[in-house]
Design brief:
It is built from 23 helices and twelve strands. It has about 525 residues and is of the alpha/beta class. It folds into five domains: about 140 residues, HUPs (Rossmann fold), CATH 3.40.50; about 60 residues, no CATH class; about 60 residues, no CATH class; about 55 residues; about 80 residues, Arc Repressor Mutant, subunit A, CATH 1.10.10.350. The strands form four sheets. Strands 3-2-1-9-10 form a five-stranded parallel beta sheet. A three-stranded antiparallel beta sheet has the order 5-6-7, with no helix packed on it. Strands 4-8 form a two-stranded antiparallel ribbon.
Amino acid sequence: MGHHWDAHSTTLRDIMTNLRDAAMNSKAWPFEEARRLLKRYEKKAPEKGYVLFETGYGPSGLPHIGTFGEVSRTTMVRRAFEIISDIPTKLVCFSDDMDGMRKIPGNVPDPKALEIYMQQPLTAVPDPFGTHDSFGAHMNAKLNSFLDTFGFEYEFISATDYYKSGKMDDILLRAAEKYDDVMAIMLKSLRDERAATYSIFLPLSPTTGQVLYVPMKNVTRDGMITFDDVDGTEVTMPVTGGNCKLQWKPDFGARWAALGVDFEMYGKDHATNTAIYDGICRVLGGKAPEHFTYELFLDAEGHKISKTSGNGLTIDEWLTYASTESLSYFMYLKPKTAKRMHFDVIPKAVDEYHQQLRAYATQDDAGKLNNPVFHIHGHNVPASDMVVPFAMLLNLASVSGAEDKDTLWGFIKRYAPEASAATNPQMDQAAGFAVRYYNDFVKPTKVFRAPTDQERAAIEDLVARLKAWDGGLDAEELQSMVFAVGKAHEFDPLRNWFTALYEVLLGASQGPRFGGFIALYGVNETIAMIEGQLTA
């Protein structure tokens, strides 16, 4: 047995070595980030024994598609790093649950009952749903279950726990000691009226427990602060032991210093604060992490997606019509480019993801490492069992008026007799998604147009050739025949002929290869469908 394992591990080691060589030259953005991160430790390994990746979360609202994007992309960089380095890694998800409740969420039962808890830390506000110790704990549980659903590997950290257990004490004492230096960094970025009352420390009121935004009357180098409480009483207390927290920008830099964060990514809206976060981290004795700023998502109109206005896609909406992997694929693509995120991008993402799965099997190491599916799945890239593209399923659902996936399976089985729901689970799932997508989006907006004289003549010619067809259901041969009809009727460019087929026959402006569609739908069925449309 021993010898067998040695042989096995050598093979695995060889594979890893080959991959590492390819990874050091890969243009894929996770590898570019991983190589930049590795430079931090060229001289010596991290004293803490691992490289730390962090993502942050504001628990006043539910985890959303941006949360997924941030954790999935950070995981991609982490995975890339693990290929090029033997240094262990860790990913922490940090929840800012000690923040004061600034507004009452609209979706909670009995919102009036929460009014007396305004400005209390989220972990001190009772849980309106009655299932957890606090509102903060409830939202943290939602975040954990969200991340677990997608199989992310992470360690969860609560800000309240960090501050109250004393894990932030050293950094808080250093912030008091270096108060003037930290304030100097902050004051440069503040308007005069804000600067007049600004403090990096937010004490918790000893009388009401609220998070106070009050000016400091005095800060001593050994960590004592003096301020006026809500009722005007002067209070002096230590910054340690959970008595106070830091304002959010100083907190960002302080957290990096306290945890020893090596890598954090955030949206472009944070980019202007990077110098502030870094400066504070350095003043507090830390080494600023590597960062990566990604572009924000836009809705169909090109407006920034925001939680409050509810525009753009939610994660639940995406997963109603497509798999998690297709969403991960979308997140992988060009993170530095602003992307429109609306329902029309889903079919394309699904089909491209499966094209990449099919390509992966035939690629060399360099090709594999540049393939998005490697960054989604790591070494365990599955095979695609999609015998029919998603776009084709949508057209099929459309012409057959499919109300359930069984209708689609009737066509799929004739086209690919060996396929079944049991042996092709991705295909089966996609068929269900296609029916749902068709009924929700395509059906309500389907518009057929009448053909021009040239188009009508060509379509009638196509019907005649289909009636005489004896070439079976070979998609390529059918495509060549459709092509030949377009050429014979002098469509220029030829693309106009295919556009006409989609718009006149399928009620869509674009679609799959028409030959493949005929092969799937059936020659006689296609003839009947075309004749129906021409006489409609």
